[in-house]
Amino acid sequence: MLDIKGLSAGYGPVVILRDISLGVEPGSITALVGPNGAGKTTLMKTILGLIRANSGSIVYDGADISRSPSHSRVDGGIALVPEGRMVFAALTVEQNLRLGAVVPRAHGGALERLEEIYRQFPRLKERRRQLAGSMSGGEQQMLAIGRSLMAKPRLILLDEPTLGLAPIMVKKVFEIISQLRADGYTVLLSEQNSKLALETADHGYIIENGIVTLSGPAHQLVDDPEVKRRYFGM
Fold first, then answer.
1. pTM higher than 0.85 for the full model?
2. Does residue 158 sit in the same domain as residue 234?
3. In what residue span(s) does the ABC transporter domain sit (predicted)?
4. Full domain range(s) for residue 180
5. Which of 62, 104, 149, 188 has its CA 20 to 30 A from that of 225?
6. Distance between CA 2 and CA 85 in Å, rounded?
7. How many Å apart are CA 101 and CA 88, to the nearest integer?
């Protein structure tokens, strides 16, 4: 579904990503793991077109979208759940969800998707009239994921979804991620919890200093002695 080759990008003269190549298979979870500042968030933003690629290609569903505007990528079925959740704090839960359906592809069936999200996330239904900014971090993460589903995506980019969450909510978020795959979504996951991410994913990429240093089936990376030493503290 996603094929990235030789991708370089950054902020002005500062290059963050250097010749990144990776692939994401339909219906899979692909994990990006690595230390803070490795370039994971920059990669997510570049895929969505929020940061312009300096070189290389981003092919989504067979079409090169490297120079496409961000809004066309979203309307093509790519949704980003950003780091820090970025919900609209002064709006209600339901208003946040409805904003997820503003892209043209999501207009049809929006009310049905809203009810489906309420079935998936009963807590959001309970708090549909509550201001999003008054909810806990875990509840806001559910809301951010629900908002992305309202856009009728095919590929979901999840950027550090467990950042700042209590352990019980980390477990809940990973249950949701596994359910997304079961429901037929394709997920590209950037995550600090390297062990849990690789245990959940089908394929993994280790990113350091803006380059891919190691990749392979996630179950093999979990058992790799060097990965255990550097990322699991074992």
1. yes
2. yes
3. 2-234
4. 1-77+154-234
5. 188
6. 23
7. 15
